[in-house]
Amino acid sequence: MAQGQLKKSKPTTATSKRPSASAGKMKPGPRQIAPKKASLVKAAKLTKKLTSGLVAKTERSLAQKAGHLEMLSGGKKDTKGKGKGDKGKK
Fold it and tell me: For the region Disordered, what residue ranges are annotated (predicted)?
């Protein structure tokens, strides 16, 4: 036998994987300095208001498309309940 005998490897035991300490923590984002000029404060407020409206509208449309997800409000289940109650009231 020119090659020699095969080396038998020991069976590896499954070790428990410990979650790393940094995996659970979220990295803080970059700090933003609040604007001091009145016009910039007003613009920042308006931007925040418009952004929140867009986010709410997007989530509502996604909930309507998904429908079966209970985590998102505005799905098919929510609209069914509103439709029944609104017909009698005016």
Answer: 1-37, 58-90
Q: Which residues of the chain have pLDDT under 50?
A: 89-90
State how far the Cα of 42 lies from the Cα of 72, in Å rounded to an integer.
31
The CA-based dihedral angle spanning residues 62, 66, 69, 75, taken in that order and rounded to the nearest 10 degrees: 70
The answer to whether the beta carbons of residues 67 and 76 sit under 8 Å apart is: yes
What dihedral do alpha carbons 18, 22, 26, 30 form, nearest 10°? Answer: -170
CA angle, 78 as apex, 70 and 56 as ends, to 5°? 75
With H, G, I as helix, E, B as strand and everything else as coil, classify residue 39.
helix
Helix axes 38-66, 76-88, angle to 10 degrees: 90
**pLDDT at position 16, please?**
58
**Residue positions counted in the chain:** 90
